[in-house]
């Protein structure tokens, strides 16, 4: 028997805010879990399993999903937690359905970085004997990638700031991200130093929020959804922990794991990056996004900026991760955004997009990468 | 349009919480030897069968996974291969002379004075032992002669374990449901839950969605501060993180009017008497803390058995 095809039936997400001060995790989670069913005809009773994603360190409690089960709708259901970005939770769920063991799954990811110290969260991820004491972490790693990227690509900090400003403007247009003051390129350049040569606004902004994605076997997806996007390829690849050992200094391979993950996904799908209409990409900084664009084959090494801004593929029309990075949910949000853009093109400027690339990342300097292909 | 939880502005500030985790980290042979040797001002590196030398020492190649054939002594000089600045501190990648890898460390210079490829040398801090910070950082050394990797004939015993502590701070949001519950505890000294869908018993703590039915919960309801024990255990063992002196009873109590168990404590004088009297089905009442209530579960000091 051939493997089942899996479709995205429905998605729901909260507004992404710098801080949801008046809601706790379960409030955000139950909000998306109740609304994801609206209009689908399905209910929580139809769901065979729930896979969720979040970080114990960010949440401030061990095995935090145990306390969130009720809000997740997981009472007496099969439930598993993936301690990685929600796109890996989706990968887990898709494989459960493809194997024939289940037919409907709910994927949920949530994040409240406002409740903790994001720098400490990243520090907890680096090696404790040689790296943590000297202050090497997520920010320093991105600063070093940026120094190399600017030197090798010939781009200026102003070029980076222009892209950041465009991403924030796109997020403001989408209406899904809370933005008090929309920064222009000058504001991006004038922001405080995050890790030289990057300013703080050149880093992805941590935000609170939750996202739910309902996936189902092909026949169910076609029955309940008007124009479902199908997941046709998936790949994942992990790089070495030591950033310095990741093909040091060579841009073309600075994001090798992302390229490997993409190659796996494209092989499944039977098409390649040039055939995509849409891409939703994660990046822990503007440099991370450019490196990912190049690793996914959407641009040559050092040429990610032109592809990001006016390439043939619509990249991060949602604004991507720079204005809104709900850590651990960011990749699943990309999946939700891309599937809506494919399923409901009339809400996104029309046209007839057919294929999308979705990218999620985890770890210091995007050590771990996951890539999906979507088709309608 | 996005989904939004049933929320409104809350007067209560966030709930401050700290997690302090004590660890004894095991550095293993390579890092353990490196950390033991810094007091002798030696930088221990690993030499692999391929001839590659990696500093600081590693038990495995981070790319190929193979084990080193020997520990060697790396020189104190090298070149700067990349750098950035975080919170005013310059951090760079250093490649020591004769070594094949880069590693991060502090750079003791102003960012604007640095350039890739420039010579640097280790600056030692005699007050630090058993840490990579025994090397305070690397300072520019334009004229430093090229160092060489040397064999390490004798070496210190590797450190076995290193005490370590991780402290994490949190500011948890209460949300609308917990927010009102704690507010009612503080203002009115009562426990408010919300009704399960289609029933008169309350869920405590209150929540927007019933866990079992996964449907919207009903209206608010005040529960009594008396209840029944539904599960309990006499704690007579001291463990890390305890907030009371043993012995005491950990009790899961269903307050009158509620359907859910709340966890609290019953103080006891005698183990034997406690075994006799405190069991599932025992009726208990809350003993509120004297003085101003703070809007916490600890506003109830303890529960006590209701003598029939």
TrEMBL record, chain A:
A molecular function GO annotation: acetyl-CoA C-acyltransferase activity
Positions of the Thiolase C-terminal domain: 254-369
Entry-linked SUPFAM superfamilies: Thiolase-like
Entry-linked Gene3D superfamilies: 3.40.47.10
One Pfam family here: Thiolase_C_1
Record protein name field: 3-ketoacyl-CoA thiolase
Organism: Sphingobium cupriresistens
From TrEMBL, chain B:
InterPro entries xrefs: ChsH2_C (IPR002878), NA-bd_OB-fold (IPR012340), Thioester_dehydratase-like (IPR052513)
Domain ChsH2 C-terminal OB-fold: 220-288
Any Pfam family matching the protein: OB_ChsH2_C
Domain of life: Bacteria
UniProt xrefs under SUPFAM superfamilies: Nucleic acid-binding proteins
Record-given protein name: ChsH2 C-terminal OB-fold domain-containing protein
Organismal lineage: Bacteria, Pseudomonadati, Pseudomonadota, Alphaproteobacteria, Sphingomonadales
């Amino acid at each position: 028997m051939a493997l089942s095809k899996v479709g995205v039936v429905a998605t729901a997400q909260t507004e992404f805010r710098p801080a949801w001060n008046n809601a706790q995790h379960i409030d955000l989670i139950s909000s998306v879990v109740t609304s994801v069913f609206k209009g689908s005809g399905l209910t929580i009773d139809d769901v065979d399993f729930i896979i969720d994603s979040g970080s114990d360190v960010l949440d401030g409690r061990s095995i935090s999903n145990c306390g969130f089960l009720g809000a997740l709708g997981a009472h007496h259901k099969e439930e598993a937690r993936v301690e990685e970005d929600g796109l890996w939770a989706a990968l887990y769920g898709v494989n459960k359905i493809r194997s024939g063991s289940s037919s409907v799954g709910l994927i949920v990811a949530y994040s409240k970085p406002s409740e903790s110290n994001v720098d400490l969260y990243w520090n907890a991820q680096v090696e404790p004997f040689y790296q943590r004491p000297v202050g090497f972490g997520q920010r320093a790693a991105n600063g070093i990638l940026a120094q190399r990227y600017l030197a090798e690509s010939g781009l200026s900090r102003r070029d980076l700031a222009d892209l950041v400003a465009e991403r924030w403007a796109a997020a403001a247009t989408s209406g899904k991200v809370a933005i008090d003051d929309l920064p222009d390129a000058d504001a991006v350049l004038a922001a405080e130093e995050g890790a030289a040569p990057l300013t703080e606004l050149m880093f992805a902004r941590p935000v609170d929020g939750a996202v739910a994605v309902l996936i189902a076997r092909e026949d169910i997806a076609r029955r309940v959804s008007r124009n479902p996007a199908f997941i046709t390829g998936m790949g994942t690849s992990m790089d070495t922990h030591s950033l310095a050992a990741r093909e040091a200094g060579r841009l073309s391979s600075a994001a090798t794991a992302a390229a490997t993950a993409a190659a796996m996904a494209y092989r499944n799908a039977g098409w390649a990056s040039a055939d995509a209409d849409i891409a939703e990409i994660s990046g822990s900084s503007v440099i991370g996004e450019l490196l990912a664009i190049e690793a996914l084959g959407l641009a040559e090494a050092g040429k990610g900026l032109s592809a990001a801004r006016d390439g043939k593929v619509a990249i991060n029309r949602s604004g991507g991760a720079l204005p809104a990075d709900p850590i651990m949910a960011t990749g699943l949000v990309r999946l939700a955004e891309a599937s809506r853009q494919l399923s409901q093109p009339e809400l996104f400027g029309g046209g007839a997009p057919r294929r999308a690339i979705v990218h999620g990342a985890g770890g210091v300097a995007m050590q771990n990468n996951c890539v999906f292909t979507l088709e309608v | 349009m996005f989904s939004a939880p049933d929320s409104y502005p809350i007067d209560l500030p966030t709930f401050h919480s700290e997690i302090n985790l004590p660890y004894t980290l095991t550095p293993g042979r390579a890092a353990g030897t490196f950390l033991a040797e810094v007091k002798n001002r030696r930088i221990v590196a690993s030499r692999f069968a391929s001839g590659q030398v990696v500093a600081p020492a590693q038990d495995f190649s981070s790319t190929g996974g193979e084990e080193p054939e020997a520990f060697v002594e790396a020189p104190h000089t090298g070149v700067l291969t990349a750098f950035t600045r975080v919170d005013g501190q310059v951090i760079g990648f250093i490649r020591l002379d004769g070594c094949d890898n880069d590693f991060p460390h502090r750079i003791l210079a102003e960012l604007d004075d640095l350039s890739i490829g420039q010579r640097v040398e280790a600056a030692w801090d005699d007050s630090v032992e058993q840490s990579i910070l025994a090397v305070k950082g690397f300072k520019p050394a334009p004229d430093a002669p090229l160092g060489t990797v040397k064999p390490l004939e004798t070496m210190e015993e590797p450190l076995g374990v290193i005490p370590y502590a991780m402290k994490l701070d949190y500011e948890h949001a209460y949300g609308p449901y917990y927010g009102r519950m704690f507010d009612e505890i503080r203002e009115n000294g009562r426990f408010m839950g919300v009704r399960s869908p289609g029933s008169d018993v309350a869920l405590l703590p209150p929540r927007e969605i019933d866990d079992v039915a996964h449907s919207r919960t009903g209206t608010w309801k005040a529960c009594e501060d008396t209840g029944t024990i539904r599960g309990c255990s006499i704690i007579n063992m001291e463990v890390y993180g305890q907030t009371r002196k043993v012995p005491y009873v950990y009790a899961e109590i269903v307050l009158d009017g509620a359907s859910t168990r709340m966890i609290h404590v019953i103080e006891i004088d005698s183990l034997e008497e406690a075994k006799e009297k405190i069991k599932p089905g025992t009726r208990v009442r809350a003993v509120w803390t004297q003085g101003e209530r703070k809007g916490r579960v600890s506003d109830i000091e303890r529960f006590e058995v209701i003598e029939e």
